[in-house]
Recover the amino acids of this structure.
């Protein structure tokens, strides 16, 4: 029995540590400057104020959120479409150089993104795409090798009989992909979508390098500059953080099952 | 996004049982169609991954500060690297960072996974709570943890003050800044890694544990002799992907310390960024990128060897 209690206590403590910083963000975002100084960080300021949130929303923040949402939507859509086509071809079609190309893709997964940043910037500069939406999106919208690898593994796992039957009935590759394969791989597509949404929303280094104006500024870059802008007004900063975090937490709450499955899919099977 | 570099999927055999023998039709036209299907992604891989690799390699042989014309200098940048104390310092900081976070976040993840692999009420809910940190935007995390680590009003020192301890100036103290940043990584990745270990643990048949217990193995022996060896593939995946990520850490450092105080958190990726986009020394920054690439490659290779040498038990 004591063992049982100890187990729960440990797990509860761990879970608490995991969510504590989030809790702190919420508490602090609703505090006035006075409450911030007079209350302990982990206690709520009473009565709560929505001034900080309102102040952040009154500025350029909604625009940056919109930019981030646009970027995330475009990257996710691109990833889903191009990855599906490429992965299907690698998994099920025969063509010259298929295996060599596939291993090339796998090899590029090992290239650290930090290493390609400089040349990517120079390429965009050469094409006059610095500080444009094209420059921001181009490197990641055509499908990542990682996504293609993930989807290919999934396609390979689907029974081949289905496809053969359709072929005998005269269906072409495009029909097979769209009518037969896609409905079957909805879970895998969901997983891929979530991974892409999260990594796009959170991406920082590339947007930081390639954009400078407000037209293409995303939330991560805005948050990073926030710190220099408003000094140590933690309640304002936490209000900004809260606004940036809410969409991801929402994604998490809604797609929790998918996320856990994605781990199993990507890692171990 | 860093992907798992080396995972293999056993290809499931097509529907079992006797298959009707049908003459396989020549898939005419599927050649050009396949190229059409992979076309866009191939353009991306070549243009945004392979070409950059070539460019960075070539550029590392040039002296180029963006405004002037690039000048070929051969291996000069690499020679400069050899005597560049600041870079070696950055490397050391990076290695220290990796050593601070990887063992801790791996061990913690495994421990939590083992706790959650028991019959516990509300296990699903608890599991989700542990994964919550992984969702957060690293740059926002940096901001939040800055506030927690704030020496005067931060949660950590306020809590320490309650028990009569005066906490250090965490992020502006050269001794504590790096451990503090590493701690944030541990906080963020433990739950996520836990999911992998949990999946791995659930793949181990209960009979093996039972058999070991029947033979009189203590829980500790069962852990070292049964659980851990059978988790080898998971361990491999988790450490490889985590290390690749940790060697490139940037976001949290940028948000929390910007390399300071006095360079104590200046990890190599941050130095590359500063060299390229603050000092516009693109040639030398490319050389540093090559160095980072080489290090990550060698570390990954070493891990492949290490894990490859150990027996992997196939349970499927």
């Amino acid at each position: 029995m004591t063992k049982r209690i100890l187990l729960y206590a440990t797990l509860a403590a761990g879970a608490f540590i995991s969510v504590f910083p989030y809790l702190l963000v919420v508490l602090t975002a609703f505090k006035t400057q006075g409450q911030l100084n007079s209350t302990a960080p982990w206690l709520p300021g009473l009565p709560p104020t929505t001034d900080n949130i309102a102040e952040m929303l009154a500025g350029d923040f909604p625009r940056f959120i919109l930019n981030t949402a646009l970027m995330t939507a475009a990257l996710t859509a691109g990833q889903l479409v191009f990855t599906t086509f490429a992965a299907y071809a690698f998994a099920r079609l025969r063509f010259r150089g298929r295996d060599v190309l596939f291993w090339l893709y796998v090899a590029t997964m090992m290239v650290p993104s930090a290493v390609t940043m400089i040349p990517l910037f120079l390429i965009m500069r050469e094409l006059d795409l610095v500080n444009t939406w094209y420059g921001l999106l181009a490197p990641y919208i055509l499908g990542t090798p990682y996504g293609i690898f993930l989807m290919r593994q999934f396609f390979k796992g689907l029974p081949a009989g289905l496809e053969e039957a359709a072929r005998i009935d005269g269906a072409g590759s495009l029909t097979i992909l769209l009518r037969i394969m896609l409905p079957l791989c909805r879970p895998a597509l969901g997983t891929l979508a979530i991974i892409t949404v999260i990594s796009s929303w959170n991406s920082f280094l590339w947007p930081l390098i390639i954009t400078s104006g407000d037209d293409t500024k995303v939330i991560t870059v805005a948050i990073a500059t926030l710190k220099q802008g408003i000094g140590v007004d933690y309640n304002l900063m936490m209000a900004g953080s809260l606004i940036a975090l809410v969409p991801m937490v929402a994604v998490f709450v809604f797609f929790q099952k998918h996320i856990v499955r994605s781990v199993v899919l990507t890692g171990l099977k | 996004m860093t992907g798992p570099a080396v995972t293999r999927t056993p290809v499931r055999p097509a529907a079992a049982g006797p298959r009707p023998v049908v003459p396989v039709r020549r898939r005419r036209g599927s050649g050009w169609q396949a190229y059409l299907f992979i076309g866009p992604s191939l353009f991306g891989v070549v243009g945004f991954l392979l070409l950059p690799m070539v460019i960075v390699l070539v550029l590392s042989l040039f002296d180029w500060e963006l405004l002037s014309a690039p000048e070929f200098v051969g291996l000069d940048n690499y020679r400069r690297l050899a005597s560049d104390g600041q870079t070696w310092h950055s490397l050391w900081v990076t290695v220290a960072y990796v050593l601070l976070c990887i063992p801790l976040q791996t061990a913690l993840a495994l421990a939590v996974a083992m706790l959650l692999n028991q019959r516990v009420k509300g296990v699903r809910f608890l599991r989700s709570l542990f994964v919550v940190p992984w969702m957060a935007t690293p740059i926002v995390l940096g901001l939040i943890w800055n506030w927690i680590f704030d020496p005067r009003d931060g949660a950590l020192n306020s809590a320490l003050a309650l028990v009569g301890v005066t906490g250090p100036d965490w992020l502006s103290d050269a001794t504590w800044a790096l451990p503090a940043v590493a701690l944030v990584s541990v906080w963020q990745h433990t739950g996520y890694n836990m999911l992998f270990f949990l999946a791995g643990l659930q793949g181990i048949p209960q009979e093996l544990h039972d058999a070991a217990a029947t033979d009189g193995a203590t829980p500790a022996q069962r852990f070292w002799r049964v659980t851990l060896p059978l988790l080898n593939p998971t361990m491999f995946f988790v450490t490889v992907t985590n290390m690749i990520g940790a060697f490139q850490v940037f976001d949290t450092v940028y948000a929390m310390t910007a390399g300071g105080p006095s360079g104590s958190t200046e990890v190599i990726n941050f130095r590359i960024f500063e060299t390229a986009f603050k000092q516009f020394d693109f040639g030398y920054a490319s050389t540093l990128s090559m160095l980072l690439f080489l290090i990550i490659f060698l570390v990954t290779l070493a891990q492949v060897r290490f894990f490859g040498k150990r027996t992997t038990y196939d349970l499927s």
